[in-house]
Specification:
The structure holds four protein chains of four kinds. Chain A is α/β, with parallel strands linked by helices. Chain A is built from nine helices and ten strands. Chain A is globular. Chain C has 15 helices and two strands. Chain C has one domain. A two-stranded antiparallel ribbon of chain C has the order 1-2. Classes of the chains: A alpha/beta, B alpha/beta, C mainly alpha, D mainly alpha.
C-alpha cells in the first residue's frame, strides 16, 4: 500500500443523512478525508458520531446522501462488501468472538483478505500466510503472550487492543476506530496512542475520541460534529482557535 | 453425570443378569409393544393379558409340561427401536414374538423376521400379530413366519358392508378417515365394496384429514351436515376419534357412526360425553357382553386381578390359545415344527366360541365378527366400559365364512 | 354455499379465539422475557388436569380460579429455580430448558393422572345450546370460551397500555437493553410475568379441557400450532397474536370447506411415468386435506417475506 | 520469521506438517477400537446397538455443525436424516435384482447427496434468518415435510414405510451383508470417514468462521464475511452428513419410515448433542453413544425412563451446559499437570451422597408410579432387589430422608470438590 497522493480522497461523504422515524440524527454531512490522513471526529454525546460510523461501515442504511471509498460509491451496501473493499472498523463497546482464542480472533479477521474466503477444504493451521500475518499482528498489538487465551477472559485493555487487532488484520487501507480509549486508565491510554500511531502508518484513519489530549496528539485534522452536522473541520491548531467550536463544544475544557 | 453413572450401572447390571440363561425349555414369548410414553396404556394392557394367560397356563401344568414365560420389550412404538428390541429378544432366547400396535411397527417386524430367518437358517422366529391390520401384511408382503390374528382392514370392511347390505335405512354414506395409508385403505375398500353390495347407496363425501393434527373438528361436522349423510364410516382412532365424536355431539349432528376403533381407549368416554347412546357402532372380533360363559368367566377373573384397566382384547386370547394348541399338537416349541400345525387350524373363538380358521395361503385368521353399539346396558349385561356405566350391545354378527376376502399373497415357504 | 360459508365463519372465529386463549400467555412471556416457552402447551395441559381435579371436588368455577393459580405458582418456581439459572447461558439454553421441561411435565402428569383420557365434562350450568343456525347448534360453553378469550385480550391490552408493568413490557419490546436499567426489580417482574403467562395457559387448559380431550399426551398433540400463532402475529405482539389466531382459525376452517385439488384446477397431472406415480398423490390432494398444514406453510412464508410477523415491532 | 522468542510465550502454533503419528494417530486408534469392538461385545444385541450408535454418531455430529459450531438451533434436522434414508432405500430398490454393478457400501453416498440437495433447498429458505426465527422456520419446514410424507403415500410408503433388502446388491469380496456383523463394519467405516471429514471441516477457514458466527454474527460481517452464506453452507453441509447417517440407517434396519423424519427424531438428536456437549467436537459422539444406549436399555429398568431422561437433560442444561464432554474437558488441565489424584477423592466423596440422593429420588418416583399407574400390580414392589410395600409410610420416610440427606451432603461435598479443583488449578500456575 504505497500512498501516492491522488486527487481522489480515501473517503468522501456528501450530503449524508440519517433519520430514525421523525428524528434526524445525521443532517447532511459533507466531508473529504484524503488518503493517509489521521482524522478525528469529536463532539458532545448524542451528536451522532457512532451513527456516522455505522453509516460509513454499512451497519445502517443512510436516509440520504452518499459515501465514496476511493471514488467508489459504497452507499448502503452490506458491511461485508465494504470490509472487502478495504474499510475496516472497531467498535465502541468491545465486540469480539469471546469463545475463540486471541489467536483465532485475529486469524479469522485475516482470512478473507488473504483469499481463503469460505474454503472448507484447506487446513487452516497450515495456511502459512494466515499464521504469519496473525503473529505479526499479535506482536504489533502486544498480545502475543496471550495468544491461546479465550478472548472473553482477557483484561479490558487487552480486549480493546484486540479490537484494534481485528480491525487491522484484514490489512485494510481505511480504518475506523470508535473510541479506542474509552474506559482506559492513563497508562493504558499512552500505550494505546502508540499502538494507534503505529497501525495508522500507511493507512487512512478516522477515529472518534473523547480524550482531547489524544485527539490533538494524534490527529492531522479534526471534525467537530454537533447535532448531526459538521460545524468545523480543520487542523488541530485551527480547531482550538475556532470560536464557534469553543462555544459549541469545547468551552473551557481546552487548556 | 452422577445420574448417568447410576443408570448405566443399573442398565449394565440388567444386561449382566440377562446373560444368565433362564430354564432352557421355558416357552418364551417376547412381547414387543409400547411400554412407555403415550401409547403405553394400550401396550401395558396387552402385557397384562399375556401375563394373565401365562399364569393360567402354568397353573394348569404348562404347555407340554413346559412353563410359559412372557418378557416385555418396550418398542416406544418406533419401527427401528422395535427391530433392536426384537434382536434383544432373540439374544435372550425368545423365538415367539407377539406384537399388535401399529402397522408401521408390524411391517418392520414382519420384514425383519423373514430376513432374519432366511439369513440364519437355524433360527426359526415366528411373529404373531394380534393387531396390526394393514392388509399388505397378509397380501403383497405376506410371510411364512407371520400370522395375523386380527381381521385386517379388508376383512373388517367386507363384514361391515355385509351388515350394511341388510340395512335398508342407510342411503347416504359419508367417509371420513385419517390421511395416511390405513385411512386410505379403509376408504378405498368401503367405496368399492359398497358399490358392489349396495349400488343404491350414495357416497356423499370421502374426506381425509391429517393424522392427529386437528384440534377442532367442527368444520368437518359442518361438511357432513351439509352433505345430508345419514351414516358416517370412520377408521379414526385415539384423539382423532374422540374429538370427532365430541364435535358431532356439540353441534347436534344426527347420523349413525360405523367405526373401527370406537372401543379403543378413550373412545367410550368420548361417546358418553357426546351423549350419543346407540348411535356409535364398532366392528371387532368380540365384546364383553355376548353371554358366552367361558369368556365371561375369564373376563371376571381378569377384571378382578386388573381392577384399574379391566379392558380385554379377545384377539390376544385367540392368539395365545391357537399358539398353545399348535405347540401341543406339534409336541415342540420350535416354530418350524408348530407353524404347520397353525396353518389351516380350526378353532372356536374366544368371544363366543364361533368357528374360526387360519387360512393357510396367507396366514390370516378368519373369525366371527360382531357389530355392536354403545349405550346403556340391559340389566342382564354386566360389563361397562371405562366406568361410564354404558357398554357395548351386540346388534349383528357376521360368520367367519362371510368375511373371507381373496388374497394376493404368494407365500414363500422354506425349503 | 352461503350456509357453509356462514357456518365456517362462526366455526373459524370460535376456533381462532380458542387458539388465542392458548397462545396469549406464550406471547406475554416472549414479549417480556424474550423466551419462547416451548413448554407452554405443557402448562396448558397442567391447567386442564388441575381444572379436572378441582372440578371433581369443588366444581368448575373453583377450578377456573384455582387451577391457574396453582399453575402460576408452579411456573414461578420453575422460573425462579430453573429458568433464571439458565438465563446466563443464553437463549439457546433457555429454549432447551423449556424443551426438557415438556418431557418432565408429561411424565409427571402420566404418573399422577394416568395415560388414559379423564372424564372432564362441561359444567352443568353451561351445558345447553346457545343458539342454532342452519340446524347446527352451538353450545353455550364455546361461546363462554370466546368471551373469556376476548376479556383476556382486552385485559392484557389495558395492562400493557396503562400500568407500570405494561410500560416495562413495552420498553422491553423496543429497547431490550433498557430493561436491565430498571434495577433489581427485574428479577421479580420476570418471575411474575412467567407466572402470569403460564396461568393464562392454564386458563386455556381449564376451558379447553372439556371441549377437547384431557389426556396426558394432549400437550404433544397440540403440536407447535401455538408457536405458529405467535410467530405469524409477530413475536411479542399481543394484537398480532390476536389477529393471527383469527386468521389461522378462519383459514383452516374455510380450507376444510373446499375439496379443490391441483387436479381439479389444471386437469390431470402433466407428469408421466415413474415420477407421476410418486407425485400424483400431491397433485390430487385437496385443499381440505391439507387444511391443518396450511398454518405451517404460512409460518415459513411469513418468516421469509415478513420476518417481523403481521404486527411485530422488532425481529429478534 | 525468527524473532527472539520470549520465554513467557507458550509455543506458537506452527504451519508445518506435524508428524504422521500426531496427525493420524487418533484416527488409527479409533479404527483399531472400532475393529475390535465386536469381539468384546459380541452378542447380536450389542452389534445391533453399536450399528445404531454409529448412525447416530454421524447424525449428532452433523447436528452439532449447526448448534455447536455455528450457533443455529434447528428443530427439523431429522428431515435430512429421513430424506437421505428414503432416497437410499429407493436407489437400492431400483438397483436390486438388476445386474447394475453398484456395491452396497457406496449407497450412503446417495443419502449424503440427497441430504445436501435438500440442505441447499431448505437452507436457502431458512438461513436468511438466525436465532429464534431460524428455529421456528426449521420447525415449520419439519412439520411440512413430515405431513407431506403422509400425503405422498407412494413415495414414502405410507405407514409401513419402504422396505429394502441389502443382500440384493452385487457382492464384492464375497460380502453379502446379510450378517449384522458385516453391516457393523460397513457402518464403522462410514462413521470413521464422516467423523474425520466433519472434524477436518472444523479445521478449515470455513469452520473457524462458523465459530465466529456463533460467537458474534454481527462482528463477522465487518471482517468481510456474509453471515448468511456461512449459515447456508453450514446448513447444507450438515444436511449432507445427516443424509449419510440416514442412508446408513436405511441399510442397517432395511426399512425407512416417515416417523424417522418426525419431530421425535429431531428432538432426540438435540438431546444427544446437548447431553454429550456442544462445545467440544467429541461431545456429540459421547452423547449419541450414551443416549442411544439409555434409550434402548433404560426402558428395561424403569417404565418412566422418559422422566429420568427429562430430568437428566434439564440438569445438564442448568448445571453442565457444556455437556458430558465439557465435564471431561474440565479434568484435562488436571491430568496434564498430574493433579487429578488431589481432586479425585473429592469427586468420590461427592459421588456417594449424590448416588444416595438419586436413589432416594428415584425411590419416590418409582413408588408414586407403582401406586398411581401400576395399581393392578398392587402396592408390593421391588426396588434395588429389596421388596417392600409402597403403601406403608416407612419406605416413603426412608426415601425422603435418603434424598434430603444425600442432597445436603452432596452439595457440601460438591463445594469441597470445587475448592479442591480450583486449588489444583492454582498449583499448576505456580512456577
Amino acid at each position: 500500500m504505497t500512498q501516492t497522493k491522488t486527487p481522489v480522497p480515501a473517503l468522501r461523504l456528501s450530503g449524508l443523512e440519517k433519520s430514525f422515524g421523525p428524528m434526524k440524527i445525521i443532517r447532511g454531512i459533507d466531508l473529504d478525508i484524503p488518503a493517509g490522513e489521521r482524522h478525528a471526529v469529536i463532539g458532545p454525546n448524542g451528536a451522532g458520531k457512532s451513527t456516522l460510523f455505522h453509516l460509513i461501515s454499512g451497519h445502517y442504511q443512510p436516509s440520504g446522501g452518499s459515501v465514496r471509498l476511493h471514488g467508489d460509491d459504497i452507499t448502503g451496501i452490506p458491511p461485508q462488501l465494504i470490509a472487502r473493499r478495504g474499510l475496516s472498523r472497531s467498535f465502541q463497546v468491545t465486540n469480539l468472538f469471546p469463545q475463540l482464542t486471541v489467536w483465532e480472533n485475529v486469524r479469522c479477521a485475516t482470512l478473507w483478505a488473504l483469499g481463503h474466503k469460505y474454503s472448507f477444504w484447506r487446513n487452516v493451521e497450515r495456511l502459512a500466510d494466515a499464521r504469519q500475518r496473525t503473529e505479526e499482528i499479535l506482536r504489533e498489538i502486544n498480545l502475543i503472550e496471550r495468544w491461546n487465551m479465550p478472548a472473553g477472559v482477557l483484561a479490558y485493555a487487552e480486549q480493546r487492543a484486540l479490537e484494534i487487532g481485528l480491525a487491522i488484520a484484514s490489512n485494510a487501507n481505511t480504518l475506523l476506530l470508535d473510541e479506542p480509549m474509552a474506559g482506559m486508565s492513563h497508562g493504558e491510554t499512552e500505550h494505546m496512542v502508540e499502538l494507534i500511531r503505529k497501525v495508522s502508518e500507511n493507512r487512512t484513519l478516522l477515529m472518534i475520541e473523547h480524550d482531547m489530549g489524544v485527539v490533538f496528539d494524534l490527529a492531522d485534522r479534526i471534525s467537530v460534529l454537533v447535532y448531526g452536522e459538521v460545524i468545523a473541520s480543520d487542523t488541530p491548531e485551527r480547531i482550538k482557535a475556532n470560536a464557534s467550536v469553543q462555544q459549541a463544544y469545547l468551552g473551557t475544557e481546552v487548556a | 453425570m452422577k445420574k448417568l453413572v447410576a443408570s448405566t450401572v443399573l442398565a449394565l447390571s440388567v444386561i449382566g443378569a440377562s446373560v444368565v440363561p433362564a430354564a432352557a425349555d421355558n416357552i418364551k414369548i417376547g412381547y414387543v409393544d409400547p411400554l412407555s410414553g403415550g401409547a403405553a396404556s394400550i401396550g401395558q394392557i396387552g402385557l397384562n393379558q399375556l401375563n394373565f394367560i401365562a399364569d393360567t397356563a402354568n397353573k394348569n401344568g404348562g404347555i407340554n409340561g413346559e412353563q410359559v414365560e412372557v418378557i416385555g420389550y418396550d418398542n416406544q412404538i418406533n419401527p427401528q427401536t422395535s427391530l433392536v428390541q426384537v434382536q434383544k429378544a432373540i439374544d435372550e432366547g425368545v423365538r415367539i414374538i407377539i406384537q399388535g400396535n401399529g402397522s408401521s411397527v408390524g411391517s418392520a417386524i414382519e420384514g425383519f423376521v423373514a430376513k432374519y430367518n432366511r439369513r440364519n437358517p437355524d433360527a426359526h422366529i415366528v411373529y404373531l400379530n394380534y393387531g396390526a391390520i394393514d392388509p399388505v401384511m397378509t397380501n403383497d408382503n405376506c410371510s411364512y413366519w407371520h400370522f395375523g390374528f386380527d381381521a385386517n382392514t379388508n376383512v373388517k370392511m367386507a363384514a361391515l358392508t355385509n351388515f350394511i347390505k341388510q340395512r335398508a335405512e342407510i342411503k347416504k354414506v359419508y367417509l371420513i378417515n385419517q390421511d395416511y395409508s390405513f385411512g386410505h385403505a379403509v376408504a378405498d375398500t368401503a367405496v368399492s365394496m359398497l358399490k358392489e353390495k349396495r349400488p343404491d347407496i350414495e357416497i356423499v363425501g370421502n374426506e381425509f384429514h391429517p393424522l392427529v393434527k386437528i384440534t377442532d373438528f367442527s368444520p368437518y361436522i359442518a361438511k357432513i351436515k351439509a352433505s345430508g349423510a345419514d351414516t358416517v364410516i370412520t377408521s379414526n382412532w385415539g384423539q382423532d376419534f374422540s374429538l370427532l365424536i365430541k364435535a358431532a355431539g356439540q353441534s347436534g349432528l344426527d347420523v349413525n357412526w360405523y367405526t373401527y376403533y370406537a372401543g379403543a381407549a378413550g373412545g367410550p368416554t368420548a361417546i358418553k360425553q357426546a351423549d350419543m347412546a346407540g348411535r356409535v357402532f364398532q366392528i371387532n372380533e368380540g365384546i364383553s357382553n355376548l353371554g358366552y360363559e367361558p369368556a365371561e368367566n375369564t373376563a371376571r377373573e381378569y377384571g378382578a386381578r386388573y381392577k384399574d384397566a379391566p379392558v380385554l382384547f379377545p384377539r390376544i386370547f385367540n392368539t395365545t390359545a391357537m399358539l398353545f394348541k399348535a405347540i401341543e399338537a406339534a409336541g415342540s416349541q420350535d416354530p418350524a415344527d408348530f407353524i404347520p400345525k397353525l396353518e389351516g387350524m380350526k378353532y372356536a373363538s374366544f368371544s363366543a366360541g364361533g368357528d374360526s380358521f387360519m387360512r393357510k395361503d396367507d396366514h390370516q385368521l378368519f373369525q366371527p365378527l360382531y357389530i355392536s353399539s354403545f349405550g346403556p346396558l340391559a340389566s342382564d349385561k354386566a360389563f361397562d366400559e371405562e366406568h361410564t356405566g354404558w357398554g357395548w350391545n351386540k346388534v349383528g354378527e357376521i360368520a367367519a365364512k362371510d368375511t373371507v376376502v381373496p388374497t394376493t399373497c404368494k407365500m414363500k415357504r422354506p425349503g | 354455499m352461503f350456509e357453509i360459508l356462514f357456518i365456517s365463519t362462526i366455526n373459524g372465529v370460535l376456533y381462532g379465539m380458542l387458539l388465542f386463549l392458548m397462545a396469549s400467555g406464550l406471547t406475554v412471556i416472549f414479549s417480556m422475557m424474550g423466551v419462547l416457552n416451548l413448554a407452554h402447551a405443557s402448562f396448558y395441559m397442567l391447567g386442564a388436569f388441575f381444572g379436572f381435579e378441582i372440578t371433581l371436588h369443588m366444581g368448575f368455577w373453583a377450578g377456573l380460579v384455582f387451577a391457574p393459580l396453582i399453575v402460576a405458582g408452579i411456573g414461578m418456581v420453575v422460573e425462579r429455580y430453573g429458568l433464571r439459572h439458565v438465563h446466563r447461558h443464553g437463549h439457546v439454553a433457555e429454549l432447551l430448558f423449556t424443551f426438557g421441561l415438556t418431557f418432565v411435565i408429561q411424565e409427571v402428569v402420566e404418573m399422577v393422572w394416568g395415560k388414559l383420557p379423564v372424564d372432564y365434562r362441561v359444567p352443568a350450568s353451561l351445558d345447553f345450546s346457545a343458539f342454532t343456525v342452519f340446524a347446527t347448534t352451538y353450545p353455550a360453553f364455546k361461546i363462554f370460551a370466546l368471551l373469556v378469550s376476548v376479556v383476556i385480550f382486552l385485559a392484557l391490552l389495558m395492562v400493557i397500555r396503562r400500568t407500570r408493568i405494561g410500560l416495562i413490557v413495552q420498553a422491553a419490546l423496543s429497547h431490550p437493553d433498557m430493561v436491565g436499567m430498571l434495577g433489581h426489580n427485574v428479577d421479580r417482574v420476570f418471575m411474575l410475568v412467567f407466572g402470569v403467562g403460564v396461568a393464562l395457559a392454564a386458563v386455556a387448559g381449564v376451558i379447553a379441557g372439556p371441549v377437547l380431550v384431557t389426556q396426558s399426551n394432549m400437550a404433544g398433540l397440540l403440536g407447535p400450532i401455538l408457536f405458529v400463532v405467535v410467530v405469524v402475529g409477530g413475536l411479542g405482539s399481543l394484537g398480532g397474536a390476536f389477529v393471527a389466531s383469527l386468521l389461522i382459525g378462519l383459514v383452516q376452517t374455510y380450507a376444510v370447506a373446499f375439496n379443490i385439488s391441483l387436479a381439479d384446477v389444471f386437469g390431470s397431472s402433466p407428469l408421466s411415468g415413474d415420477v407421476a406415480f410418486y407425485l400424483d398423490d400431491l397433485w390430487n390432494v385437496t385443499v381440505a386435506q391439507v387444511a391443518p398444514i396450511l398454518p405451517y406453510l404460512l409460518l415459513v412464508l411469513i418468516l421469509i417475506f415478513r420476518p417481523r410477523g403481521l404486527m411485530g415491532t422488532n425481529n429478534r | 520469521m525468527s524473532q527472539k522468542t520470549d520465554m513467557k510465550i507458550p509455543a506458537l502454533p506452527s504451519d508445518k506438517r506435524s508428524s504422521f503419528l500426531a496427525r493420524f494417530g487418533i484416527w488409527i486408534v479409533a479404527a483399531i477400537v472400532l475393529a475390535g469392538l465386536p469381539y468384546v461385545f459380541s452378542s447380536g444385541l450389542a452389534v445391533s446397538t453399536m450399528c445404531m450408535m454409529g448412525t447416530m454418531i454421524i447424525f449428532a455430529l452433523s447436528y452439532n455443525m449447526l448448534l455447536g459450531q455455528t450457533g443455529l438451533l434447528s428443530f427439523g434436522h431429522a428431515v435430512f436424516f429421513g430424506l437421505g434414508g428414503f432416497l437410499t432405500a429407493w436407489a437400492m430398490n431400483a438397483v436390486a435384482g438388476t445386474s447394475s454393478p453398484v456395491p452396497l457400501f457406496l449407497f450412503p453416498i446417495m443419502g449424503g447427496f440427497t441430504g445436501l440437495v435438500f440442505g441447499i433447498i431448505f437452507g436457502a429458505v431458512s438461513t436468511k434468518r438466525s436465532g429464534t426465527a431460524f428455529a421456528m422456520i426449521t420447525l415449520g419446514i419439519a412439520e411440512l415435510v413430515s405431513s407431506s410424507a403422509l400425503i405422498l403415500r407412494h413415495f414414502f410408503g405410507g405407514e409401513e414405510g419402504i422396505t429394502l433388502d441389502r443382500t440384493d446388491m452385487v457382492q464384492v469380496l464375497g460380502l453379502s451383508f446379510g450378517p449384522q456383523i458385516q453391516v457393523y463394519y460397513l457402518i464403522a467405516v462410514w462413521c470413521l470417514i464422516s467423523v474425520a471429514a466433519m472434524y477436518a471441516i472444523t479445521c478449515t477457514p470455513f469452520g473457524r468462521i462458523c465459530n465466529a458466527v456463533r460467537d458474534n454474527p454481527e462482528r463477522v460481517r465487518f471482517i468481510g464475511y456474509n453471515t448468511q452464506t456461512v449459515r447456508f453452507m453450514a446448513f447444507s453441509l450438515s444436511g449432507l452428513f445427516a443424509g449419510i447417517g440416514g442412508g446408513l440407517a436405511a441399510i442397517n434396519f432395511e426399512i425407512m419410515n416417515s416417523a424417522q423424519m418426525g419431530v421425535g427424531e429431531s428432538g432426540a438428536v438435540i438431546l444427544m448433542t446437548y447431553i454429550g456437549g456442544i462445545g467440544n467436537f467429541a461431545g456429540p459422539i459421547i452423547g449419541a453413544i450414551v443416549v442411544t444406549y439409555l434409550q434402548l436399555m433404560l426402558s428395561d429398568v424403569t417404565d418412566v425412563w422418559q422422566l429420568y431422561f427429562g430430568l437428566l437433560f434439564i440438569g445438564m442444561v442448568m448445571y453442565a451446559p457444556r455437556g458430558l464432554a465439557g465435564l471431561l474437558a474440565l479434568q484435562q488441565p488436571l491430568l496434564q499437570t498430574r493433579q487429578l489424584h488431589h481432586v479425585a477423592p473429592y469427586y468420590i466423596l461427592a459421588l456417594l451422597p449424590g448416588l444416595v440422593a438419586i436413589s432416594g429420588l428415584s425411590m419416590v418416583i418409582e413408588m408414586t408410579y407403582q401406586l398411581a399407574v401400576k395399581t393392578a400390580a398392587g402396592p408390593a414392589m421391588v426396588f434395588f432387589y429389596i421388596p417392600f410395600n409402597a403403601n406403608s409410610p416407612l419406605p416413603w420416610i426412608i426415601a425422603v430422608i435418603l434424598f434430603a440427606v444425600g442432597t445436603w451432603l452432596f452439595l457440601r461435598a460438591a463445594r469441597l470438590a470445587g475448592d479442591a479443583y480450583s486449588q489444583a488449578l492454582a498449583w499448576r500456575k505456580l512456577p
